[in-house]
Amino acid sequence: MRKRDRRTRGVLAVVAAGVLGVTGCDAVGGDSAAPSESAKPSPKPTPLWDRSPGSVAAVGDSITRGFDACDVLSDCPEASWATGGSPEVDSLAVRLLGRTGAAQRSWNYAVSGARMADLPGQMARAVGRRPQLVTVMVGANDACRSTPAAMTPVPAFRADFEDSLRSLRKALPKAQVFVASVPNLKRLWSEGRTSPMGKQVWKLGICPSMLGDPDALDSAATLRRNTVQKRVEDYNKVLRDVCAEDKRCRYDGGAVYDYRFGTTQLSRWDYFHPSVNGQARLAEIAYRAVTAKRP
């Protein structure tokens, strides 16, 4: 009987151990509950950057207005790299929203001739549309002045850019911002000066701080152009640094500045603003930046 009792107790112990394993109780007598069958996985947090925003507003200067892209001395917003509907450009808005979506949910508040001091006002108007993405391209006119001494000081440039982002954040905390770098004005001079027509047009007063007296290669002219170029680089550093402080802002990493455009990408009327081809290249750069995967 004792042997049978011992065998019985042994079988019960094995069965008990099996039951304990199935029910999830710990071996030392704890009573931690088994996972509930109705428990659902926690939802993934909303990403800080949405690579497919549902609406786009553009602010900036004549480049974003498509000035001189389609006709002489006139805006051509349909050719804008940011919001235009031209099939030849395939704008950022069209790439993100489709042609119909871009026509309904993209808005262009850029103004030809605008400088950074004008950006806060443009941003205030754009906010009224409650866009999910705002594109910014401004700064060329701050460097393109009558003389290098007349260029916008870097601290003022920074202050107006910071003010613009603050006003956006106050109204639309989750809106995304894409910031394009200021184009390379010295490359524009080196490309356009090969065209006799371009040089004649520049005499009308287009960006005299860089493009004035385009054939002059003396030390004074070289210093003047280098001073303007350094200011553009300083502006781009401001755009990069201020944007980096905003978790929903993306700077293009200097892609527009670094793009090695040729005369094909320049307007045949002024050899300064982008042509339709140039606008298409800007759209490509912006789309890559907005849709890029980042950690």
From TrEMBL:
Entry keyword set: Hydrolase, Signal
Listed Gene3D superfamilies: SGNH hydrolase
Keyword Cytoplasm: no
Region (Disordered): 30-54
Pfam families: Lipase_GDSL
PANTHER family: GH22081P-RELATED, PHOSPHOLIPASE B, PLB1
Protein name per Swiss-Prot or TrEMBL: SGNH/GDSL hydrolase family protein
Source organism: Streptomyces violaceochromogenes
Bias (Low complexity) ranges: 32-41
